[in-house]
Design brief:
homodimer; 362 residues; alpha/beta; TIM Barrel; globular
Amino acid sequence: MGSGSLPSTIPPALAGPLPRVPYKRIATEEAFGTVEIFDRYRAMLSSGGDLDPGFKSAMGYFLLHPSPRARTIAERLADVDARRIGDMDEAGIDLQLLSLTSPGVQVFDRETATALAADANDQLAAAIARHPARFAGLAAIAPQDPSHAAREIERGMTKLGLKGVIINSHTQGEYLDDPKFWPIFEAAEGLDAPIYLHPNTPSRAMIGPMLERGLDVAIFGFQVETSLHALSLIIAGVFDRFPKLTLVLGHLGEGLPYWMSRIDHMHGASVGSGRYANWKVLQRRPSDYLRENVYVTTSGMPWAPAIAFAQQVLGVDRVMYAMDYPYQYFVAEVAASDAIAGSLEDRTRFFQTNAEHVFKLA
Amino acid sequence: MGSGSLPSTIPPALAGPLPRVPYKRIATEEAFGTVEIFDRYRAMLSSGGDLDPGFKSAMGYFLLHPSPRARTIAERLADVDARRIGDMDEAGIDLQLLSLTSPGVQVFDRETATALAADANDQLAAAIARHPARFAGLAAIAPQDPSHAAREIERGMTKLGLKGVIINSHTQGEYLDDPKFWPIFEAAEGLDAPIYLHPNTPSRAMIGPMLERGLDVAIFGFQVETSLHALSLIIAGVFDRFPKLTLVLGHLGEGLPYWMSRIDHMHGASVGSGRYANWKVLQRRPSDYLRENVYVTTSGMPWAPAIAFAQQVLGVDRVMYAMDYPYQYFVAEVAASDAIAGSLEDRTRFFQTNAEHVFKLA
């Protein structure tokens, strides 16, 4: 059998205007950047120092590459007013949940990172105040200083009206399964603030073979890095220690929903045979945490078969729409998402009410 | 919604004897090991030298760990006669396609590897001669010596009656996208020998953060390593250069089927913007190669929702049964695979005729 009858991986071109739909389209992984942070990125990239290789690869492309794709994305990242809202209108997006683009402040030294996260959150709150019907946002933090990060989560949630937290996977090679970071989880759980664990390029200790091949970024490395990070949190017992913590993963849960049964089986086999002395005995199966503490979004995965699979194995209440603007801004993808299978009620959950519930959008 | 109504990740316990079925059950990723190779592994592990960290982690567990799980697996790997056939009878497996267990000879020096691969193939052919109705096999090779490996493929296919080739991902950190290895692909294509690209632990340049967490093996690292390797072959243009080459991937294609649309999109975006000077322009989309040059097996993924997803996006002719004996020997998983959705014709393809076609089993 040829592949002609198989579902295309590319959304069909839009035949006319985007159809009107009876639900709000809320996009939940939408990126912006501040002038201050981009200037500092550019200064780092031109310094020639010993930079994180993934940062150099990803931000070097978006900020310095001469191609129209890179330049347009960089321009759109910097706008949180008319241009962005025009793009949202064109794509039928009612509300963007904004977050500081990866890797955020996580590549800076502790003091710079802490200050620029607060500044980015202030700028985000100001943009939301200018366009309250169109924007909501997540608080950026500097995991480099966990106790200060915890206070910034509190400030973001209580003073700035933000709806959760964005963390871009590893922070200079460190992962949040290290208990030194757990004040962040304590604050997030206490404030009912979901944490969006967004991709970063793989950490230095892992990126080598991916970087050599141009596979370190969104084509492959992002999924590896973020799957590893999320699975590490489960294995470390984060959700036993913080049972009400909510994690959000993009890209339909990275690879984890597909591997769920294998992870459960192998976790049980390793625990049962005492393979790793440092593994905690978990209260539930790894997949239970994926189903009960995790929500996933479709950013970068606007593909009906994968969406249906994630809905089937995680539940229709656990899968939300995201566009990943401006990295993947294509109106045809919105129409393809409108056309996913399921009742109108399920599509309303997917585009609107799941996000309203998770992020407490009015 | 709780997770009560979602598909369980664990096959239900078997209520009675395994049902009789009107198809042959052919298992396509079934491992064995030779005394000579295991003795050498043990000598390496006890030498305290600078071993590949993944080898130390994986084979150190299976050959040296005192748990019943590790000891039983090591014993079963070594048997290609009565004990194995008894297990097959118990699980209703008609035929095992045997292959030398990962990492095969790929951790040895070139001369040792070449000699022990030939010896393993001789032993495998002898086992098949003793039990021709129950066993078929794949030829082990030493990629360390590509031109000799090509000759061993020829010897295996034409003299020993083997049905393809097994390669356990990286060879001491090197991947088959390097053209120096392409005599292997040339021989395999010319002899119509499918190459089973089996997992290995991630290579040294990538394993660090996975190893620290006990996530370097089948729970996670195998999938990362093998997805990266297979995707690298596509990106390097291997299937444009060798359009009739057939690759077989276990574990339902590692992560690649789930990520297919994202890979296509990001590949197109990177090529379109000239991001990587060293990337070839491919004749087809990455997913086309997955659908036209690749077959996948269910080893370690005996889970109906993931099987159905792979069948939907790759085609029912592209998905085959594998047990991953003796690493994952559970009779209940066979019954769960018997119960996957689809017509009897589709289940016959899944268990029998796809494997007969790919591996030219009589």
